[in-house]
Amino acid sequence: MSASKVFVARLAGCSVFDPAGDRVGRVRDVLVVYRRVDAPQVVGLIVEVPGKRRIFVSIGRITSIGAGQVITTGLVNMRRFEQRGGEVRVIAEILGRKVLIKKEQIRATIEDVAIEDHGQGDWSIAQLFLRKPKTTPSPFGKGPTTFATWNEVTEDELPGESQSAEHVIAAYSDLVPADLASTLLDLPSERRFEVAEELPDNRLADVLEEMPDQERIEILSALRDARAADVLDQMQPDDAADLLAQLPDERSEALLELMEPEEAQDVRMLLEYEPDTAGGLMTTEPVILSADSTVAEGLALVRRHELAPVLGAAVCVTLPPYEPPTGRFLGLVHFQRMLRYPPNERLGTLIDQQTEPVKVDASAAEVTRVMATYNLLSVPVVDDAHRLVGVVTIDDVLDHVLPDDWRSQDAADANPGAASRPRTRTRRTAIPSGRRTNRGTPR
Predict the structure, then answer these.
(1) Per-residue pLDDT reduced to its tens digit, 209-231
(2) Do the beta carbons of residue 126 and residue 39 sit within 8 Å?
(3) H or E segment at 397?
(4) What is the reported pLDDT for 3?
(5) Strand partners of residue 410
């Protein structure tokens, strides 16, 4: 049964079904258009369908909204959604706005929006859920809330004041970094910067790793130097190096100086290598242990929640020290093999004798061939002294092989041959580094 009034923040993430009960996708936003006198009219929903594509579903195609689900007529246009002039997204562009309550002359923030069905598919904004300024000095206190109709308020953004993105971030909290990156790319540039500014450092770092170069450079450039350095600290060293390589030398050096010394050192090392080589593609944070370490120790390290699955597929065994550049590289022990042996078995006896490392100056094509030939998720990278300096993972190789616009599914569908063209990587400029300090313990 369809509800006559629905709050948009609760609608976000709801499943969309066709009349047969098959799931179409999930609601990601509500689209409205402003009117001269009346409250904004709802024109449709932005729905994410399988394949991470966002489409527009006209409100006229919606037969029921209620009980945490949306029912459509089953007839939807699968063309990727593109926002037109005059259209406004409720979650992305209205939540968090400042308004003035006319009667009380008090500024308030829009925390939610209720849309109402007036019959025959005519939906409009019925109420605004507002948060007034807090009246107590307590840092944990919140202001009182109230409801108001659209005509009882007027927009009251002060010059230079940014729109709060707190509720947008909450609505998109269930998205994985790649999907959140895609969502941000769909936003107007100004709103994109506002959301990025309020994302936690680690969340923004994950999102930037999934964005095309141009957009992530724009976001990083818009951040204050101290905040930008904090975000770079949270990024994988190879992604941070790729990003810094595209900034002016002065800004890159300034950010490196503000980063944590250990993180900056890893990035500086990567900047010394050509981007289309194993050294330029690798990450400097593999799992590293000694030959005397046991299977139990290896499994304890690879099961860490913060470790990327591709890095947990194998453990690198080296002589001390155990931070890149390590002592002499001895070999790999694959996760699956560790599962076949007792916990007290030493890793030195389980080394894969068939997997050979690649040199730091090996070409990206050579690295790709090695990984394809031996069905590897990662390949170790060594220097001329046979010391481990990092590993190239399968996602690093895919990022290199795929075209620059691979995140656009439509572009890939329209041009199937595009995936065979390698992307163009910016040439890195080496930045002088200081003396490296070995920490001596595995991450």
Answers:
(1) 988 888 999 999 999 999 999 99
(2) yes
(3) helix 394-401
(4) 62
(5) none
Q: Checking phi first, is residue 231 left (phi over 0); if not, alpha (psi -120 to 50) or beta? A: alpha
CB 3 within 8 A of CB 10: no
Instruction: Using DSSP, state whether 165 is helix, strand or coil.
Output: coil
* Token pair recorded at residue 270: 């990567």
Cβ pair 2, 65 in contact under 8 A? yes
Nearest-angstrom CA–CA distance, 367 and 204: 30
Most confident stretch, 12-21, 96-105, 120-129, 380-389: 380-389
- The secondary structure of the chain in percent helix, strand, coil, rounded to multiples of 5, reads 35, 25, 40
Q: How far apart are CA 268 and CA 255, in angstroms?
A: 11
Are 59 and 4 within 8 A, CB to CB?
Answer: no
Strand partners, 33: 41, 87
Prediction pTM value: 0.70
Cα(332)–Cα(313) distance, integer angstroms: 10
What Rg, from alpha-carbon coordinates, does the chain have?
Answer: 26
Which is it for strands 15-17 and 5-7: parallel, antiparallel or unpaired? unpaired
Do residues 16 and 27 make contact, with C-beta atoms less than 8 angstroms apart?
A: yes
CB 317 within 8 A of CB 333: yes
**101-157 pLDDT, tens per residue?**
998 889 999 999 999 988 777 899 999 999 998 877 777 778 899 999 999 998 776
Q: Are 81 and 56 in contact (CB under 8 A)?
A: yes
Amino acid at residue number 190: E
Of 105, 124, 111, 8, the residue nearest 59 (C-alpha): 124
CA–CA distance, 214 with 238 (Å, rounded to integer): 17
